[in-house]
Design goal:
InterPro entries: ABC3_permease_C, MacB_PCD, Macrolide_Exporter_MacB
Number of domains: 4
Strand content: 15-25%
Largest sheet: 10 strands, mixed
Protein name: FtsX-like permease family protein
Radius of gyration: 34 Å
Number of strands: 24
Distance between the termini: 29 Å
Helix content: 55-70%
Shape: globular
Family: Belongs to the ABC-4 integral membrane protein family.
Number of helices: 26
Main location: membrane
Subcellular location: Cell membrane
Length: 862
């Protein structure tokens, strides 16, 4: 009980100092809990949607599972309408209905503006069925009754200010269809962001499948008293031997499959955010360690007196740990609440970019607060263990000394040795990674090197502080005379504290530097490869995922003026049998026009690429050729997906030492079309064009004009394409930097806390300096300079460490063809200078409080 009272008294006696440490715990726990609540809410939203949209039993073509939501032909896999009648005869079927659904569509308004989601969500077109009434109600107008009518979902209508009577054009693989909005349907559950358009059944079949009398799936409703599982068995029995051609799934199985399709995306988002929360926790550990170390140091006399009157080491140790426990409980409880608020904020943010999430689906599982509380409390107590252990070692004789902080001076020799060993081991691991022959093997060394060098720098930080701070001070502080020298001495007074404070900032900035180097190197490598490999003047690509370039759009491109040639590029899967008799399943083939050989300059190790575009010929990459013992002139059996088997001559082996089309196997489009039925020929994934000599600008304008009616495609010259790559990498890095911002905030709090406690620790010293003539302005400047030096110390270590990690990572990327190392010096310099401003900002409050200190009271302080 005495230990508890002592702990509580000390805890509340330092409320302000504990508050800063509590903020670190609150932020870290909030990020973890917010991530869990947000991801659980997203899962709940999709679970409700999939449960509401799935029929009791669904029958789909077996081939649809391999084709996915967006088959390369642009037309979904389908089955004859007779399956509906066959399934209806099964015992226990209350109703059977054929349905059509496709995600290979784009919907535009009369101004050719895309009405689909901008967040990566799908645009889905299909026929309106009774099964849709499970999840939607027609709230305005009526369902479509013919080819001139279309119905849309209310979310899309609200987002784009659409109303009854407005015209929409639906672009599909089979052509374009213009229809007026006849109805608007509202979801009964939350729609995360898909755009839905409905046609009548005949129009859906003709427009989306290119044939009448076919459906993509059959929805079956069970009669009363019949379970979904039993109905599935009954339907399988009726379809008899044809079940090998169809997938038959219950509502739960269909919902589980749909959930699995989005589960990987949700998991990546969840674990990435938890990773950044872990970084924030790691940074927070340094803040907590520093806080308790300084509090213990400032209570040396108090602890000594406690030991003198009979307190044991264990009791003193326990007293400090109880304070940490109270801090952990307080911070974790608030952090859990803040995490729920953070999740709501993230939901609002996602709604702003097009992914709708309703607070009505807010999901707080019991595990979330438990994880937050346990994590926050355990981390806080563990961080306080070393200071608590140090407190227990204070001898009773300390009570006879003056109050103040005992000189903590130099880090121990043991610490220096351990730090050097860890750093050396990490450096060796990074060197081994840079020398690896395979990226997979090197990544293991890279991961080990990152961890070891990070821990090594943290351990050796106090040793490095003495030298690095002197160098920084010589450059920045000496010009400020005595005030600058005092700031330098203050930063050097306790190397362990300076090292721990700088380490908190070092971690975040090391990751920033590493990712900046990797991102810049990726862009520079891709740009360099484009300059060397791409000979085409223009590149045409879809701007949204999951769609290809339709034949009608390709024809429009072909009518552009000032064009020397247009190159089509398609991909198709096939099974390959080598001369040795070995069959390789599911190889990807790139079918292109012969002009692709000049549009993309690929080096060959044997044969010529132009020969690969000859009659019944193809090429393979040298890695594949070496693995399967192939040589030019070999005959390969190619069983095309949905097509016939061909015998093709191996006419070229391409060099895979590239990042563009690495490992691609080429053949002429006419060769592919010879063995694949016309309705199974894939659409173009990408297209290339070259201008008539001297007409590049006119050709560029003509190509763009030809696609005015197709906003889902973008025409780019090489400059545009490079900028697009740069923008994509930049967006990803900006998102990562934003998440790392939490760790930077916690690190800034650590600097604030260190300075605040340092000011209290040096109260008498400050009073004496003020008494002998140091002005308030000079005092504040001294504290600000001390903060800047500490921040720059952490930045220097972090940026140096991060650039080392990034350079090693680039060596591994070079094995995949990304060979250019580029250090983004503007970013590195900006971050370093920004760290100085971080130091200034962190010192504002401590410097202000020091300046307001009463001189006489300060001198009298013990």
């Amino acid at each position: 009980m005495t230990v508890l009272k002592t702990s509580m008294r000390n805890f509340f006696a330092h409320k302000g100092r504990m508050a800063l440490s509590a903020v670190a715990v609150i932020l870290s726990v909030a990020f973890v809990c917010g991530t869990l609540v947000f991801s659980d809410t997203m899962s709940t939203t999709f679970d409700k949607l999939f449960a509401a949209t799935s029929a009791d039993v669904t029958v789909t073509p077996k081939s649809a599972e391999d084709a996915g939501d967006t088959p390369r032909s642009g037309k979904p896999e389908s089955m004859p309408a007779s399956v509906v009648e066959q399934a209806k005869r099964a015992k226990g079927v209350k109703a059977a209905e054929g349905a059509v659904s496709s995600q290979s569509v784009t919907v535009v308004n009369t101004k050719n503006k895309n009405m689909g989601p901008t967040n990566g969500g799908p645009t889905i077109a299909g026929n309106w069925t009774h099964n849709d009434l499970r999840s939607m109600d027609i709230t305005s107008g009526h369902a479509p009754r013919g080819p001139t009518e279309v119905m849309i979902d209310a979310d899309t209508a609200d987002k784009h200010d659409l109303k009854l009577g407005d015209e929409l054009r639906t672009i599909a693989a089979t052509g374009d269809l213009t229809a007026k909005i006849s109805g608007i349907a509202t979801f009964k559950v939350t729609n995360p962001g898909a755009a839905i358009v409905y046609f009548d059944t005949a129009t859906s079949q003709r427009q989306l499948l290119g044939a009448t009398g076919r459906f993509t799936h059959v929805n079956l409703t069970a009669a009363a008293g019949v379970s979904d599982t039993q109905l599935k068995k009954n339907v399988a029995a009726v379809l008899d031997g044809k079940t090998s051609s169809y997938d038959i799934k219950t509502q739960k199985e269909t919902a589980d499959d749909n959930r699995e399709s989005v589960g990987s995306f949700l998991d990546v988002m969840k674990y990435a955010m938890l990773g950044f929360a872990g970084i924030a926790f790691l940074v927070g550990i340094f803040l907590i360690i520093n806080t308790f170390s300084m509090l213990v140091a400032q209570r040396t006399r108090e602890i000594g007196l406690m030991r003198a009157i009979g307190s044991s080491r264990k009791q003193v140790n326990r007293s400090v740990l109880v304070e940490a426990l109270m801090l952990g409980v307080f911070g974790s409880v608030l952090g859990v609440g803040a995490g729920i608020g953070l999740a709501v904020g993230l939901m609002k943010l996602m709604s702003g970019v097009g992914m709708e999430l309703s607070t009505g689906d807010l999901t707080v599982n019991w595990t979330t607060p438990v994880v937050g509380l346990v994590l926050g409390i355990v981390v806080t107590v563990l961080a306080a263990y070393l200071p608590a252990r140090r407190a227990g070692k204070v001898s009773p004789m300390a009570a006879l000394r003056d109050a103040g902080t005992p000189a903590d001076g130099r880090a121990s020799a043991l610490r220096a040795v351990i730090g050097l060993v860890l750093t050396g081991a990490g450096g060796c691991a990074l060197w081994a990674a840079s020398q690896a022959d395979k990226a997979k093997d090197g990544s293991l060394f890279l991961g080990g090197g990152v961890v070891l060098t990070l821990i090594g720098f943290v351990v050796i930080g106090p040793v490095l502080a003495s030298g690095v701070v002197r160098v920084i001070s010589a450059v920045l502080l000496r010009m400020f005379g005595p005030v600058g020298r005092m700031a330098e001495r203050n930063a050097l007074r306790n190397p362990r504290r300076t090292g721990a404070t700088g380490a908190a900032l070092m971690i975040g900035l090391a990751l920033v530097a590493c990712l900046s180097v990797v991102g810049s190197s990726m862009v520079a490598s891709a740009t360099d490869e484009l300059d060397k490999s791409v000979g085409a003047d223009f590149i045409v690509q879809p701007t949204q995922p999951g769609i290809s370039i339709t034949e009608k759009a390709a024809q429009a491109l072909g009518k552009a003026d000032h064009i020397a040639h247009i190159t089509r590029y398609k991909q198709i899967n096939a099974d390959m049998t080598t001369p040795s008799g070995k069959t390789v399943d599911g190889v990807g083939l790139s079918a292109a026009d012969p002009s692709y050989a000049t549009d993309l300059r690929r080096e060959t190790t044997a044969g010529t690429l132009s020969a690969a575009y000859g009659k019944d010929a193809m090429s393979v990459g040298d890695d594949f050729a070496e693995k399967h013992g192939l040589k030019v002139g070999d005959e390969l059996k190619i069983a095309f997906e949905h097509g016939r088997t061909a015998k093709l001559k191996l006419a070229a082996i391409t060099n895979d030492d590239t990042s563009v089309d690495k490992g691609s196997m080429y053949l002429n489009i006419t060769t592919m079309e010879k063995y694949v039925p016309a309705d199974r020929v894939p659409q173009n994934d990408i297209m290339f064009a070259s201008a008539t000599k001297g007409q590049e600008e006119a050709a560029y304008a003509s190509l763009k004009k030809s696609l005015d009616a197709y906003p889902q495609y973008k025409v780019m010259d090489q400059t545009d394409f490079k900028q697009t790559l740069k923008d994509q990498v930049g967006q990803l890095l900006n998102m990562v930097y934003g998440l790392l911002g939490l760790a930077i905030i916690v690190a800034v709090l650590g600097v604030v806390n260190t300075l605040a406690l340092s000011v209290v620790e040096r109260t008498r010293e400050i009073g004496l300096m003020r008494a002998i003539g140091l002005s308030r302005r000079q005092l504040r400047r001294m504290i600000r300079m001390e903060s800047v030096v500490i921040a720059l110390f952490g930045a220097l270590l972090g940026l140096g460490l991060g650039m080392g990690w990034g350079a090693t990572a680039q060596k591994l990327l070079a094995l995949e063809g990304l060979k250019v190392l580029e250090i983004p010096w503007p970013t590195i310099i900006a971050v370093f200078i920004g760290s100085a401003f971080v130091g200034l900002f962190a010192a504002l409050v401590p410097a202000f409080r020091a300046g307001r200190m009463n001189v006489l009271n300060a001198i009298a302080t013990e």
